[in-house]
Design goal:
The complex is a heterodimer.
Chain A lengths: L4 E3 L2 E4 L5 E6 L6 E8 L3 E9 L2 E5 L6 E5 L5 E5 L8 E8 L9 E2 L3 E5 L1
Chain B lengths: L2 E3 L4 E5 L4 E3 L2 E3 L5 E7 L6 E5 L10 E2 L10 E3 L8 E8 L10 E3 L3 E6 L1
Parallel strand pairs in B: 2-11
Antiparallel strand pairs in B: 1-4, 3-8, 5-6, 5-9, 7-8, 9-10, 9-11
The chains are: A mainly beta, B mainly beta.
């Protein structure tokens, strides 16, 4: 079966712009989480959605937001981009939570802010 | 608050040697622990879940609640085991994790021929 699909794979944006990243989970998975990966901070949790509702949120500023659609596909948006937002953004899906199942990750979107 | 510590950033062993990747955690509740692996140019993938007590690719990991550790072990390392390994903890409230995995900083394992 198809894995977690993230688009686009690469993005280059200018400081101050906004960006939208997309994630299609594995069919049947209702939970989608987002992570930011950087060399300095490692993997950090952004937020999680389940059945179109945000259930959990990490310690990121309000410029980072997301949503989930009725088909479980999810988008995250970053407004007023800063140089420090350059990172690999990973999406992960699960049946309903990490407990006992673990999350399946996508390949990520590499965002570069210049 | 939960925290995962992987004390070794780099670990090098020779093929056929035993390998142990260390992971320590702090969490006040009952943790769910995982090991994820990322091979070169591949996506992050689940290797082990503590709750399943399984062995994958010869790797095992035992949750030691007394020492708050979840070390990953393999008796005979292979060159194809070279990768980045992440230990992760899932917190949960009322039996639901709400999607948050807390990752360690990762250990790069290199297995030399």
């Amino acid at each position: 079966k198809a894995g977690v699909t993230q688009t686009p794979r690469y993005l280059i944006k200018t400081r101050g712009q906004q960006v939208t990243l997309s994630c299609s989970p594995i069919s049947g998975h209702r939970s989608v989480s987002w992570y930011q990966q950087t060399p300095g901070q490692g993997l950090q949790f952004l937020f999680e959605y389940f059945s179109e509702t945000q259930r959990n949120k990490g310690n990121f500023p309000g410029r980072f937001s997301g949503r989930q659609f009725s088909n479980s596909r999810s988008e995250m948006n970053v407004s007023t981009l800063e140089l420090g937002d350059s990172a690999l953004y990973l999406c992960a899906s699960s049946l309903g939570g990490a407990r006992s199942y673990g999350y399946t990750f996508g390949s990520g979107t590499r965002l570069t802010v210049v | 608050a939960q925290r995962v510590t992987q004390p070794e950033k780099l670990l090098s062993v020779f093929k056929g040697a035993p390998v142990e990747l260390k992971c320590n955690y702090s969490y006040s509740g009952s943790p769910e622990l995982f090991w994820y692996v990322q091979y070169s140019r591949q996506r992050l993938q689940l290797l082990l879940r503590h709750i399943s007590r399984e062995s994958i690719k010869g790797f095992t990991a035992d949750l030691n609640k007394g020492e708050t550790s979840f070390h990953l072990k393999k008796p005979f390392a292979q060159e194809e085991d070279s990768a980045m390994y992440y230990c992760a903890l899932s917190s949960n409230a009322g039996g639901t994790s709400y999607g948050k995995l807390t990752f360690g900083q990762g250990t790069i394992l290199t297995v030399h021929p």
